[in-house]
Amino acid sequence: MEALDQIWVTLKHSALGVLPAALRGWASILLSIGPLVGAFAGLFALTTLVERKLLGRIQNRPGPNRVGPFGILQPAADGLKAVFKENVVPRAADRLVYTLAPVVMVIPAILALAVIPVGRNMTALDLDAGVLYFFAVGAGAELAVFMAGWASRNKYALLGAMRALAQMISYELPLILSTIPVLMLTGTLSPSKIVEAQNAYSFGLAQWHVFTPWGFAAFWLFLIAGMAEANRSPFDIPEGESEIVAGHLIEYSGFKFALFFLGEYLGLFAMTSLAITLFLGGWTAPVSFLAWIPSWMWFFAKLTVLMLFFIWVRGTVPRLRIDQLMNFAWKLMLPLSLINIVNAGLWHHLGSGPLRWLVSATLVVAPYFLLGQGLAARARWAPRTYRWVE
Amino acid sequence: MSLTFVITALWTAVLAIAAMTLRNLIHCALCLVGTLIGLAVIYLQLDAQFIAFSQMLVYVGAISVLVVFAMLLTKSSETQAEPRGNKAWAHGLGIASMVFLVLAASFSASTVGKAADPGPRELPVAALGQSLMTTHVLPLELIALLLTSAMIGAAVLALHDRPKNPGDPRPNP
Question: Which of A34, A89, B40, B121 has the smallest number of Cβ neighbours within 10 A?
Fold first, then answer.
């Protein structure tokens, strides 16, 4: 089992051993990047199919089932179609910015995946400040959306881009603030060291951060904010098909659209992978008697479960309105994540007894209910009326 | 000078010039973002990981988005037809040369980069945080106070009591 756990590392090293010494540096870089990009791109193809299938099932229809057995070859058909489709560029578009935008969308997502430990000894870029790097490169995605919306010279596209920017700025705050408790208690910014810190078992159960009260709260805050950052439903008002017809994507066709699609999913994978690293113990097993299963399998199993969760949410929850979206970020998630930082500090100083569990749990549950009730009491619920449309 | 440095330096300088000379404001802003990314790469080559990533996070992630947002909201994203007058150029050149002189004087007077042994090149982020929280905690808190007061000031300025639309059932955002 040890051999299977390290199979990718051993493969890489034996491949490097064949090469002359002068080429090894570059080959090592390529052999780290290539499989990573390949694995996540393959996962992207698979996810599009599973997502359409599951959404179909949720909506009581079969989903794609024409290409290959059970529609398995649908992603290949979609990819071929995207490549051969005519590339329509609007005449008024700013050609350079319009062409660059899809590329700028994909690059940060791939860069962000580099610091994720996908298995034992399997981090492509083991940085001391890895978590900071993740958020630093992630900043490019916002610009890509803006570039796309502005360069298309389309009112809907610009509206979508403005919405996306407002949403991404608002949710970046709870996203980053919810990671701070983990960084405080592990005392490091390196993803692989954060995973190592969770690789311990008490009573057979892993010491993942999600199993502590502050970690539980931070995990959900991070996941929700991450969904909003990735423009994922129910936070997909930047696309809003029914009002602004796909927003910043409206003028994109063919492979450029496919690149946007890829960038969005890779961004979601990166965000989910960071959530797994920070809260779900990365590549470690949840219970000690299952620790013999290879580490990379655990990582991708967790990734799959979270992706299925996202698909389930997409099929179930309706889209938010923009004022609801902003209120949710600034009035509920931001205070909760700030309180959670204090909570983590108390957790560190209260020693290891039942007292800290009680205090920590209270500091999670009480603000949630108090804030929720306070906000609900202030909101004036009324039947929806339309001012501009009759 | 390594090849990587030449490439990043050229990239940064060319984009900085473009950011000042292009007519379309949005293009200028995008070039400015490119310049800032180039600066972050230069920091990385100097083994200053924390500064490089903070630069990316703050300038590329937040400030540039703020800049384009402000442009779109103030209707100034139209292309300017004619260039600025020569007088502005002369003023700008004067200020720039003065700034350059001050910087050059202070750099040539300081000992940075002249010491025989510059010490360990790579500083772990943990050590940086430790010193920020212990020896330099007062400046840090002062800056935090300044920024908080600026933010409260901005919120107070923006909090105009608008006359409410009676037909509007939506909660005031």
Answer: B121
| d(C-alpha A341, C-alpha A290), whole Å | 32
Dihedral angle, C-alpha A11, A46, A133, A138, nearest 10 °: 160
Tell me how close the Cα of B87 comes to any Cα of chain A, in angstroms.
32
Domain boundaries, chain B: 1-64, 125-165+169-173
User: Confidence band (pLDDT; 50, 70, 90) for B130?
Assistant: confident
- Interchain contact, A138 vs B30, CB within 8 Å: no
The answer to whether A142 faces chain B, any CB pair under 8 Å, is yes
User: CB distance B168–A172 less than 8 Å?
Assistant: no
**Topology of B1-64 in CATH?**
Four Helix Bundle (Hemerythrin (Met), subunit A) (1.20.120)
Tens digit of each residue's pLDDT (9 = 90 or more) over A269-286? 999 999 999 888 888 888
What is the rounded average pLDDT of the residues A129-136? 87
- pLDDT bin (cut points 50, 70, 90) of residue B142 is very high
Interface test with B, best of A103, A150, A176 (most B CBs within 10 A): A150
DSSP B92-128: HHHHHHHHHHHHHHHHHHS-TTTSS----SPPPHHHH
Can you give the pTM of this predicted structure? 0.83
Cα(B64)–Cα(A253) distance, integer angstroms: 27
- Enumerate the residues of chain A whose CB falls inside 8 A of the CB of residue B32: none
Which of A176, A115, A180 is CA-nearest to residue B129?
A: A180
